[in-house]
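User: We ran a pulldown and think these components assemble together. Before we commit to crystallization trials, I'd like a predicted model of the whole complex to look at. Sequences follow.
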Amino acid sequence: MDVNKLHPIFAVELIGPDLAQAPDQALIDTVEALMKEHAVVCIRGQGHITDEEHLRFARAFGPLELPGAFREGPRRMAYGLYDASNLDINGDIIDPESLRAKFSKGNEIFHADSSFNDMPSKWSMLRGVIVPPEKGDTEFVDLRHVYAQLPQAKKDQIEHLVAEHSFAASREKGGVTSTDAAGIRAVMPGAMQPMVRMSPSGHKCLFVGSHAFRVEGMADAEGRALIDELLAFASQPQFVYAHKWKQGDLLIWDNRCTLHRGTTFDYATYKRDLRRANVNEYGEERSAVAGPLPVANAATVKQDA
Ligand code: OGA
Ligand code: MN
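Assistant: Here's a predicted model for the assembly, 305 residues in total across the polymer chains.
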């Protein structure tokens, strides 16, 4: 197996595994070790694997976090995978003005998947089934490095702060109406997260993202300003690895010590079929969503995070 760096700070590609085969302990150990050190690992050349093989590989690293109940019913992909595509049930490109398309706009702000969930989200594993010929990179930052670069005064200020994260808040930032956001809030209440947390490799990390919207003990506007300031700091170009998708990539990231975001592409012209498995650190396989989303067109809304 070959390992190559993708960015000076973090992120590697792994060439060689065939995930159509059940992963053996040596592969599981290799991926765990690479993830601990590099936080983002791209396993190339998996264009031939099925949804079930994708899910089998994910389950080797932790219990699945299942998509929400409103994702049940006819799907393009195996239950258990999140649909991060711009395609409808027939595989046609969705209307860029639809509510579902607006939901994915919220993904273009840096975030850690499911930070609104009280379960500790471990990794996301996003598979490039169809990728656009240009643009649509997924961008990452390593929050261990970001934290290390923060001025000492900022580190001191945030050391014991706790932020409230909510899926509704990040979708509102992406342009979803407050009425739809209220419906989301009813079934996805959100979670409190420390602003500084420890990575699996034992480094302190900054932990904010698009889902964070309020800081405990601060006025709403003041907390929001601090979150925005920290996100702007984290987004500096020299920190960012932009993943250029190749068909068949299986891109894995650690949600505890990285942020990621989608970027624009020609949404109305190109198909982009990305499918994601998420694993938690421990616990039962379950969804972060308590029930069906009471918003218009709930069946077509994409839950993402
Ligand atoms: C995700 C996500 C970004 C992208 O699937 O969690 O944020 O580039 N995707 O599609
Ligand atoms: Mn995401």
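Residues 220-234 form the longest helix (15 residues). That may be worth checking against your pulldown data before setting up trials.

User: Thanks, that helps.
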